[in-house]
Automatic annotation (TrEMBL):
Domain VOC: residue ranges: 5-116
PANTHER family in alphabetical order: GLYOXALASE-RELATED
InterPro entries given in the database record: Anthracycline_SecMetBiosynth, Glyas_Bleomycin-R_OHBP_Dase, Glyoxalase_6, VOC_core
Name this protein carries in UniProt: VOC family protein
PROSITE patterns: VOC
Classification lineage: Bacteria, Bacillati, Actinomycetota, Actinomycetes, Micrococcales
């Protein structure tokens, strides 16, 4: 994926099993846990391009969140803050070759950032 592409969409859920059944039946999504990411079932749409995860709902995560592929989280966060964004979650490692962060745009919308490759 290229810088600026939507790469992943997380959906907050309170019951992973119920949500997996709901989305797989409703949309035909393939949903499964991937080794190394237990407790975070990943979904893929029938087009084999769109995908994301079903993540536990929490106080700071109550609405679906899109993740944007970036060349550098550090540079993107710096540019975002200069443009009026807030950092909701600092850069964190997913795997040794991938990282994520969450910023809030000037209207408070949460936007996930993704850098690297998980090898999946």
């Amino acid at each position: 994926m290229a810088h600026g592409d939507i790469t992943h969409i997380d959906i907050p859920v309170s019951d992973l099993g119920r949500a997996s059944e709901f989305y797989s039946r409703l949309f035909g999504w393939q949903i499964a846990e991937v080794p190394g990411f237990e407790g975070y079932p990943m979904w893929h749409a029938p087009n084999k391009i769109s995908g994301g995860g079903l993540a536990p709902r929490s106080e700071g995560f109550t609405q679906p969140r899109s993740y944007v592929e970036v060349d550098s989280i550090d540079q993107t966060v710096e540019a975002a803050e200069a443009a009026g964004a807030t950092v909701f979650m600092a850069k964190s490692e997913i795997t040794p070759t991938s990282w994520w962060a969450v910023i809030g745009d000037p209207d408070g919308n949460a936007i996930g950032l993704f850098e690297g490759s998980t090898g999946m």
